[in-house]
Amino acid sequence: MNRVNLLILCTLSLLFSNYAYSQSEKRSVERFVDEVTVIAERRELSEMDIPASVSVVTDKDLRSEPSPDIRVLSNYVPNFYIQESGLKLSTPIYVRGVGSVSGTPSVGLYINGAPVFDKNSFIFDLYDIEQIEVLKGPQSTLYGRNSINGLINIKSAKPTGKWGVNALIGGGAYGSLRAMVGVDLPTVGIWRNKFSFNYSRTDGYYRNIHNNSLPGSSESYNVRYMGIMDFKRGAELLLGAEFSCTSDGGYTYGQLDSLKANPYKVNYNSDAWYNRDIYRIYANVSKTFKRVKVNNVIAYSYTTDDQLTDTDYTFYDVFSNRKHSYGNLVSNEFNIQSGVDQKLIWSTGTFLFYKSLLNNYTATFGKDKALLMNIDLDQAKYKNNVETMGAAAYGHITINDIWPGAELSVGLRYEYENSELNYHDDIQVTGTWVEDWHKSNKNSNFSALLPKFSLLQRFDNSSLYATISKGYKAGGFNIIANEMSTRIIDLSYNSEALWNYEVGAKYMAPSKRFKANISLFYLDWRDQQIFVMGMMGPSIENAGDAHNYGIDGDINLNLLNSETKNSSHILDLKVAAGYTHATYYNNDTKEHEGNRIVMAPDFTGDVSINYTIALNDRLGSAINFSNGVKAMGNQYFDEANTLKQSPYALWNMNLTYSAKQWSVSAWAKNIMDKHYFCYEFKSPVGGKKPKYLNSGQSGAPRNFGFTASYKF
To answer: Model's pTM, two decimal places?
Structure first.
């Protein structure tokens, strides 16, 4: 009997033993569709009152995920795609066809009011979370440079001020293990405190047959503190600190034809790994007066990582890369806003930041380097240091009741930043070092005015909105020079911008048993920053303009809410789906015009049925069965649209038995063991070895496991 069958049998045994006891003590439960409060627009608002497409993922949603990080948001948010492959160094995020494979992400990320800028800090374990808010469309007016077409706002669970412990442990196939514990401490005077710890690991499902290693393995742990000092009279100080440590194996890339026959076996000769440490601290002080609220958030983060990569991903000894990065980010945001019970609601603020990123990068070439280049290059060492300082000021005004139920909002932000590059590389040719082969010291300024206009009409149980907004992402510098045959280089790339035109509707039934949201959008995306794989590694270029249009929405429906003599039965349907048509209308390579945008699936969808039987009121016992299908449309991986993954669907299930203080779950992912590619690319050695030209990574196979939690 396999582990899943055994776990299900044990769960059902517990269920039926409790069911017999519950004949005289049934549990009566009414189920309603939740209307949540969202703070991503810098004030607490109902979903119905936000003129944008909003999706909210709660702690309850994450409980069914074996090892949740930001990548699981693709399962819940329509037209939101995060590539499952790759290391925590860089995971592309695409919203409505807008995203980036490398460089600064196109979606902003805030954790408890503090910003995260760099791609190597985006992927981390999600635990002890209250909720995650995802806003689609540009949020640059309120959040600036790092939110050109979306925002992820994460709220951790706050200290309760009462003694309590929340523990979780889970395991699964492929050596997967997860453990979490959170401890709430009793209030001491005005101070509430909370500590939490999370650990996760997996061997992964890939094997490198060259050295029998596990390139898809991963291990991480995270320690977090949160404290709140309540000074009464509307004054509060929130303090947070966090340390995260991650050790990953290498990239799991191989030849496409080989992966079709053996999806989880790769073959490359160099060792590979990725190690990362993140330190974060922040302080959020707020004071509510009679008519205004003042808030200030100061934050600091330090990130260091170390990566070794077999960059040709073959068993040939072509070349490998070693990279060390050290990043600092200091930010301060001051905001003052009016109360919500006024005719004119306003908010204004300033944002300052300083960011430094140092990259030390070494490329080492082996005996088969002729497969890559005709230069007798032995080694190249790069040092890239970029310091960026930025400042912004913004204001946002909402006029209520311009006619009954209507509100007009206008916002404007001025964003400025200065970025300075200090770069040099040394090369070794036939055993002789040439210092400063390339050298560059460059200073660039970027600025933008970022307006937003919206009109919202609120009815008793619904709302309609129209929004026009501008998104923006600053330019920057690449970390390496790809052209080795000349000493003239330009590592810079320019900023990109887009205009978003959106209309939408939201509805909540009076019974609160049905909720629906839908939005239509059109994007004009200019000076797109695209990923280019060069001889020495990846770089970013401004290469064209694109038009994106489409539709997305979600439905939450309570199909059944009934009581029998001994139990209550609840049946819910959730549907989230989105379609995006994203194409280049102008491109430096003219034959790419009219092609689909890279990495942007034209369809994303998730359908799930959740059935709950509530049993015993005294024990708080219930059983829940969730059955869902995640679907993905056509997806292209190169501008020429020669690398494509056709549509596919994944079937997932979860069975949970819970009581007041504990629960146990059995879960299964990709039950039908569907094979698909989550990433494809043109290999740098494909010109000399054509069979390796089309390479990529297989998506996750069938996986199963259990999760148990206890709270007291």
So the answer is: 0.90
